[in-house]
Design goal:
Number of helices: 11
CATH class: Alpha Beta
Order of helices and strands: EHEHEHEHHEHEHEHEEEEEHHH
Number of domains: 1
Helix content: 25-40%
Structural class: alpha/beta
Oligomer: single chain
């Protein structure tokens, strides 16, 4: 198992396939983009499959999520999904995406073995979307969501970040729209993972703000901790159900005690936490001829050193060197 000193077991693996993205969300990266990883630094398809196989067959990983950057930009994504779905025991496989390109790939990915998707969409207004992402692709995202639902990649989850003075008033409208289309909406507090270092706690929209806004239109009934399990989102039934809404309050209500995640960056580094300041290199060992058991041992050692929490509330908190797009969502 991937066990840490606090008794937590990592069964959920997030694999970043690329640090590149075709949007430029203001809370994620500057307009000009970032310095991308060079191709030789990226794990190859075979290397990704080998490390996933080790995680699943030797380390007890049960859930696999492909992330980025934007994972739909990764050549060979369908083949990666297919090969990972063929593992025994078979992991549950999901994808976190901005939805651009999903319209043409949803059915193919489903047939390859993808189980579900999380799609990022922060606004229902095309003009606000362009302001936030610096791209005119709002319609592409909506069509991608519809294609995912039609392909049966359920539940289709929508991730939304609210920014002050931009889209903060849209929470009730986003929820009404999600319920109408049978999407599961998740609001995510903005996190200090931007390369611009522009995040400020004083200006962020908190979980409390979001819930207060939703309650102006809906009746929310919180699900119990047993229903939540190790999931990052606190969930509420909306108007008695069956519709639900979730809030991921990484900053104001950290959920570190139940964390069951381990992360693999696109260049083969193990991260024990989104906010970790240290990484453990698997790529170097893999390319140096390490055996599966040696790689598994390195992974176990990395997880054994996982800290109790992300430390965002610590006055000495240090933002990770890598931004979100380079870590993997």
């Amino acid at each position: 198992m991937l066990l840490d000193t606090f008794g937590r077991v990592a069964t959920d693996l997030r694999v970043s396939l690329t640090d590149r993205c075709n949007l430029r969300c203001t809370y994620c990266m500057p307009e000009e983009g970032l310095q991308w990883l060079a191709k030789p630094e990226l794990l190859t398809d075979d290397e990704i499959v080998r490390l996933v196989r080790i995680a699943v067959t030797r380390l007890g990983v049960e859930e696999l999520r492909f992330t980025g950057g934007e994972p739909l930009l990764r050549p060979g994504l369908t083949g990666l999904v297919e090969r990972c779905a063929a593992l025994e025991p078979r992991p549950r496989i999901s994808l976190t995406t901005n939805g651009i390109g999903l319209e043409r790939t949803a059915e193919v990915l489903r047939d390859a073995g993808l189980d579900r998707v999380n799609v990022s969409l922060d606004t229902l207004d095309p003009e606000v979307f362009q302001r936030m992402t610096r791209r005119k692709r709002h319609g592409d995202v909506l069509r991608g969501l519809a294609a995912a639902r039609a392909a049966g990649l359920a539940p289709v989850k929508v991730n939304a970040v609210l920014m002050p003075g931009v889209n903060e008033s849209e929470a009730p409208d986003l929820l009404a729209w999600a319920l109408e289309h049978e999407y599961e909406l998740r609001f995510i507090e903005q996190m200090p993972l931007d390369p611009q270092r522009g995040w400020q706690r004083a200006g962020m929209i908190t979980a409390g703000d979001i819930l207060a806004a939703l309650r102006t239109r809906f009746t929310l009934t919180q699900e119990g901790e047993e229903a939540r399990g190790s999931a990052p989102a606190e969930r509420w039934l909306v108007d008695g159900g069956p519709g639900r809404v979730g809030v991921i309050a990484s900053v104001t209500r950290p959920f570190c005690r139940a964390c069951d995640r381990t992360r693999l960056t696109a260049d083969g580094q193990v991260r024990t936490c989104l906010f970790a300041t240290e990484e453990s290199d698997l790529r170097g060992a893999l390319r140096g001829g390490a055996s599966d058991e040696e790689l598994a041992a390195r992974w176990r050692t990395a997880m054994w050193g996982k800290k109790a929490g992300a430390g965002i509330d610590d006055p000495e908190f240090v933002q990770p060197r890598r931004p979100m797009s380079a870590i993997g969502g």
